[in-house]
Amino acid sequence: MYPRLCEGKIHELHMQTAGACNVSPINMHLTTSSSDDLQVLPTELLSHLYIGDERHSTNAVSLNRVGITAILSVSTSGADKQFPEFVYKWIPIHDNVSENISAWFQEALLFIDFIRENGGKTLVHCKAGVSRSATICIAYLMVYKSFSLDQAFDFVQSKRSIVAPNLSFMQQLSEFERLLLATNTRSSYMTSSPSMTPLLTCAKTSEVSGQQGTLGNCFVF
């Protein structure tokens, strides 16, 4: 349905588009039904990157089954359950058009790739696995796989059919693409600066590359 619902191409979306639509993207997320709703396992996008909803983040058996070692929660509420074997990162944003999710892109993308470099796998989730988590995963593909926005969106949607970032998030992704094309920004997202070094913020141990105690389970950049 979205993002090509009103104007067709992603790059033709504008803020006034929201007023032309009869269905609010936010409300749509609450009513969308799909076979994905019954899915026990999160959706694999890449060998080290999975997308899912809040339920996936609290099912340790399923997470271990696919080899998840880190959980990136893009939500205003922390997970009800946290397990000592996983590395956690929390990005506290709402799924609405007033949020600046792009301000979190570098932090989120560096975290995902930091886990990959240590031989781990990250689950990116939000409440429903539709908007916020999809936005982060799309941005990751645009940087680390050099996908265009259209390519990244289509790729993620082909794996998880219900994904639909809200209009504002899509516009921010479109602006992000223009930034990547106009400058050498992509390289800066792939290399952490001293101020973006991962810092241990709690003492619990976890397994990232198979070594117990390698990393703690709460990280900030």
Automatic annotation (TrEMBL):
It holds the Pfam family DSPc. Residues 106-160 form the Tyrosine specific protein phosphatases domain. GO terms for cellular component: cytoplasm. InterPro entries: Dual-sp_phosphatase_cat-dom, Prot-tyrosine_phosphatase-like, Tyr_Pase_AS, Tyr_Pase_cat, Tyr_Pase_dom, TYR_PHOSPHATASE_DUAL_dom. Residues 41-182 form the Tyrosine-protein phosphatase domain. It comes from the Eukaryota. One of its GO terms (molecular function) is protein tyrosine phosphatase activity. GO terms for biological process: negative regulation of MAPK cascade. Its EC number is 3.1.3.48. Keywords: Hydrolase, Protein phosphatase. PROSITE patterns: TYR_PHOSPHATASE_1, TYR_PHOSPHATASE_2, TYR_PHOSPHATASE_DUAL. Belongs to the protein-tyrosine phosphatase family. Non-receptor class dual specificity subfamily. This is protein-tyrosine-phosphatase.
